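User: Hey, quick favor. My workstation is busy. Could you predict this chain's structure for me?
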Amino acid sequence: MSDEPTEDELNRLLRAVAPSRELSAHESRQLREVLTKVVPAVRAVMRKQAAAIEEAARDGKLWEFLEQLRGKCAKCDQPPVLHITEVNSGTGEATNIHLCEEHAREYRDDRPSGTSRP
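Assistant: No problem, here it is.
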């Protein structure tokens, strides 16, 4: 099976991007170019992950593999329960933070007033 998205897949993705309005021809063309490059890369990553999961299951190490995927708190070795994406409003740069329950409470309590809370 080819990794290239079919015309039907591209049309569904384009509708998902802008469900409430019609895209201009220029917007549609640009998004098609991006999706044509991104979809094969995503499919390759998914195949790689699926192969790793199958291998872990064959070796009887599926639980350990899933725990490894889950990761750890950014401040300690506990499993994360809160996954935050902070976006710098000036640069648009996104930072992902994963926190355990205790550090999630500290994060919430330390937020300056006037900022959104997770």
